[in-house]
């Protein structure tokens, strides 16, 4: 069986027509004065899903999250949570909790009372609160810091307190606003995996807002790529990466080469695009009109460079010249200048420590790719 | 050379505040304290002993022997002084509380206002300082007197038939102090509230706290530093206030500032008035130092 990328867990309620979404945004629009932050957006999120809203700042992802938390009211449309329209419910009565980007820990309370704050609001008996707080401290491995104040903790520890506090009430949905934004790279990577394990363990629905595509790719079951208040594509990380539905998504996620050209032939499940450097023959939409301009998006690691010409040098291949080489340790990136002057990026995994007769600057090479290597994008 | 120069400069910068306190607080206080240990005399200056370099060392030692704490003992013997102190503390306490009640909502409103409005609002709070303090207190006489603006307004509105007697009562003093010291309360509270991260309130609401309860559990405790600073800025000068009780208060109003004035100007008893001033300073400074120590210790414990 072929699949786009390695599967992390067999969990795909969105593919099952019988499963009901847990959270539904239906035709949600949010305006701030003249500015439309969220534009007639419809989106379903499923129970136990780790869902990421990804986009540049100002794309409306945070506004969407804040509407789910209850801090903003949609201008129009409805938000259904577990079968209930929550539009009129104030934040303090919603069964969702949020982990804030700034953590928003109460500086006048100890770690313990921060975590127990929500439970005290619910009027839970004291002994039970103490028990739950202990549990939460253990979960985030901060037992010995219970009596400290937030300002006496490191950034990573604060992040954990914020997480424990937002989980203490066992919300139906946990909202995370740029949860790892303030951490340094190494800690961020560790914490990503911890968050994933935690979500699996607790069986909760997580909705995370992030501008960091790597973070979204690592953690999420599905990603919604947003731009200007609209969802451009909702799909699994592998689909987003391997089968972007638009130039925007292809360009936003990871590195990509887009080879431009005109449709020359279409049929048999394949499309031929004639470009300046390449004649591309790839799997794709055969409904494309002849002569229409189209692009072919291909990731750097799917472009192959070699000193000798491939067997069929007329299709999916071009000559070029090494323009730049960047050695990154795990891989090497080559910038290859094609005859038209266009520079494409190719990358090669450094599987061996030593390379015999390595490709050098200004060398003439061939760039080629397989017909399954990329996707055809309409204009 | 420049390095040495900058070192001297940095030393000087540190010295300036200490020098200021030395010359304008500590030395005057020592002089006042020394006068409080003297006895009255019909002379110039009106107390003795007077230290003179011409007396030589023996004369100075002899003079020091003459100093005594009799004036402080005298303060405890006459109920007038104790009552004046207690009444001052009470009036200052009530005024401070009333000022807080009025200032907090104003400061809160200012901190909630759109960012672009805030400088204007701050200006408006400080604006009364541009007219003389004395003139503003006199203006209150015109407002509060039986035939004054307030009574005319209330009578013409049909709310009262007889004019309210406010002037020359403690109420007039409360009004005067609250009005005059309001900015000193608003500014520190505003600065505490303005610094606060709004997401803290959202976090409280997110965790199940309705807005009013979020105010008491998050906003108010976090503004306490501003509240304490504001209360001190109002309470301390209000205890020793002289102009407001003198102009707005009645003859029966007992405040230590007025007592001091009488001792100093009417009775020309410098040593007793110096003792009154010394005790007033101790009454204010000792609890404040104690309070600050407690606060520092609490912070230390937190760490």
Would you kindly provide a written description of the structure presented here, covering whatever features stand out?
Chain A is an alpha+beta fold. Chain A has two domains: 13-95 and 171-250, P-loop containing nucleotide triphosphate hydrolases (Rossmann fold, 3-Layer(aba) Sandwich), CATH 3.40.50.300; 256-378, OB fold (Dihydrolipoamide Acetyltransferase, E2P) (Beta Barrel), CATH 2.40.50. Chain A contains eight helices and 20 strands. In chain A, the strands form four sheets. A six-stranded mixed sheet of chain A has the order 6-7-8-3-9-10, sandwiched between helices. Chain A has a five-stranded antiparallel sheet with strand order 13-12-11-14-20. In chain A, strands 15-19-16-17-18 form a five-stranded antiparallel sheet, with no helix packed on it. In chain A, a hairpin with a 2-residue loop joins β9 (222-227) and β10. Chain B is mostly helical and 303 residues long. In chain B, 76% of the residues lie in helices and 1% in strands. Chain B contains 13 helices and two strands, in the order αββαααααααααααα. Chain B starts with a helix and ends with a helix. The mean pLDDT of chain B is 90. The A-B interface holds A 69-71, 90-93, 96-98, 100-102, 104-108, 117-118, 121-122, 149, 152, 165-166, 169 and B 197, 199-200, 202-211, 213, 217-218, 221-222, 302-303.
Question: Numbering strands along the chain, what is their spatial order in the largest sheet of chain A?
Answer: 6-7-8-3-9-10
Catalogue the unreliable spans of chain A.
none
Note the beta-strand portion of chain B. under 5%
Number of DSSP-assigned strands of chain B: 2
Query: Assembly state here?
Result: heterodimer
Mean pLDDT of chain B: 90
Helical coverage of chain A, percent range: 10-25%
